[in-house]
Write a structure and sequence with these properties.
Aspartate Aminotransferase, domain 1, PyrdxlP-dep_Trfase_major, aminotransferase, alpha/beta, pyridoxal phosphate, 3 domains, 3-stranded antiparallel beta sheet, Arc Repressor Mutant, subunit A, DNA-binding, Aspartate Aminotransferase, domain 2, about 15% strand
């Protein structure tokens, strides 16, 4: 029996998992090191085998270990999790950023000059009154069927997701995520120790059969993007939203989170999957896409119980969102010139993506531009292989594999952010994508 086996302790799955983490942190279990077989460890520490299985599953969900069937369970090698944004230290033209156009983010200089006022002190309300009035009108207009809406302000959409999960889930709970899925949502679920359950997405959004399978599997929460789903760009149709509401009717206490990240920039109407009778829900709208990623603020509308859970994690004096930032946001979004700039940016993203999709289609790569900041491009082979071909031509692209939970077909895609390319560069990229796709066409089975 190894020293590592002797050092693993615990009576519950959580205690055993924490013991293994401690050994890894202290360097006693290195990346690639095998963990004891389930039966061996269970006998050694005097617990049921199912307890060890649950502990190993918790570790696997968190990415701490990797399982390989009969080959056993090993400590996972540390790896960099794919994240949105510019790639560091590259000489290639980066078309995988997912960023808004910096030139189309409103200048806050004039608004900043209006923010002088008395300081906010401990114990005061966490929401600025002006922002609350604007947000209530903005959100409740799309939720006319709900008379129980409560508002919370968080430090962005990911912050809202983390807090919603923490207030409603426990480690190892299953969460339904769209497949392919937004990178930050994947990371938030995995780092929190929850289990992602893949729900396929098609041209109308989250699929009915996929949602039904997730609910049958016992998910405790569902994350749905009603518009501009990232990475595909699809938006829910009215009929699909109605069908999803019908499926959810039998599960009123499953937490349904709608991440309407594109909101004011979207060309598609908002269709909610939350019915008037659903008991646990939240609608998140961040300002980062139209006011810039540095504006770390999101408005979350939810039922009273969910709002109360969020409020417990946003207490004045520790984690509330800066009132200066809140005042800045409301000053910008109520300015007619700024809202006109936002509308112009929305038109820009839409027309540039449509033009690029048309350029690809004319070159033999049929592409449909959805909503959002990027274009989801189908290619006749693994996206990573096509991205490697593009690197040789001077481009850094985002392969579909990074967004995939289970859908292998989604891996045969690229997500390209092209709205800030000149006409000449966009044409050159379209030609290079088509050439790379042709060179790999025989790979597809």
């Amino acid at each position: 029996m190894t020293n590592e086996l002797l050092a693993i302790t615990g009576d519950t799955a959580a205690e055993i998992a924490e013991s293994v983490r401690s050994l890894i942190d202290r360097g006693m279990l290195a990346p690639g090191a095998p963990l004891p077989p389930v039966r061996t460890l269970a006998d050694a520490i005097g617990v049921n085998r199912n307890t060890v299985v649950a502990a190993y599953r918790q570790l696997a969900v968190a990415g701490t270990v990797e399982t390989a069937g009969r080959a056993g369970t090993r400590v996972a090698a540390r790896s960099v999790v794919a994240q949105e944004g510019f790639a560091a230290d590259t000489v290639l033209r980066d078309v995988g950023t997912g960023n808004p156009d910096a030139a189309r983010i409103p200048d806050p200089s004039a608004a900043l000059a209006t923010l002088a006022g008395r300081p906010v002190l401990y114990g005061e309300p966490t929401i600025d009154q002006g922002l609350e009035r604007w947000a209530a009108e903005w959100i409740t207009a799309d939720l006319p069927h709900r008379d129980d809406v409560r508002l919370t302000i968080t430090g962005g959409a990911v912050d809202a997701l983390e807090r919603l999960f923490a207030g409603s889930l426990t480690r190892d709970d299953a969460v339904g995520l769209e497949d392919p899925c937004f990178l930050s949502a994947q990371r938030t679920v995995r780092v929190g120790g929850y289990r992602p359950f893949a729900v396929p997405v098609d041209a109308e959004g989250m699929t009915v059969d996929g949602l039904r399978a997730a609910l049958d599997a016992g998910v405790r929460a569902i994350v749905c993007t009603p518009r501009a789903q990232n990475p595909t760009g699809v938006s829910l149709t009215a009929s699909r939203a109605a069908a999803l509401r019908d499926v959810l009717a039998a599960h009123p206490y499953v937490l349904v989170i709608e991440d309407d990240h594109f909101s004011m920039l979207s060309s598609a109407p908002f269709h909610s999957i939350v019915s008037e009778t659903h008991r646990r829900w939240a609608l998140i709208r961040s300002v980062s896409k139209f006011l810039g990623p540095d504006m770390c603020l999101a408005v979350t509308a939810s039922d009273p119980d969910t709002a109360a859970r969020l409020a417990e994690r946003l207490s004045p004096g520790s984690t509330w969102v800066s009132h200066l930032l809140q005042r800045l946001v409301v000053s910008l979004v109520t300015d007619a010139e700024v809202t006109a700039q936002i509308a112009d940016a929305a038109h820009h993203y839409r027309t540039r993506n449509l033009a690029f999709a048309a350029a690809l289609t004319s070159r033999g790569v049929p592409t449909t531009a959805g909503d959002g900041l990027s274009v989801w491009v189908p290619v006749p082979g693994p996206g990573r292989a096509v991205a490697e071909q593009l690197m040789r031509r001077g481009w850094l692209a985002r392969p579909g594999e990074e967004f995939v939970l289970r859908d292998e077909d989604a891996a045969h895609h690229l997500r390209l952010t092209v709205h800030d390319l000149s006409d000449t560069d966009a044409e050159r990229l379209a030609a290079d994508v088509a050439a790379a796709a042709r060179s790999l066409a025989p790979i597809r089975k």
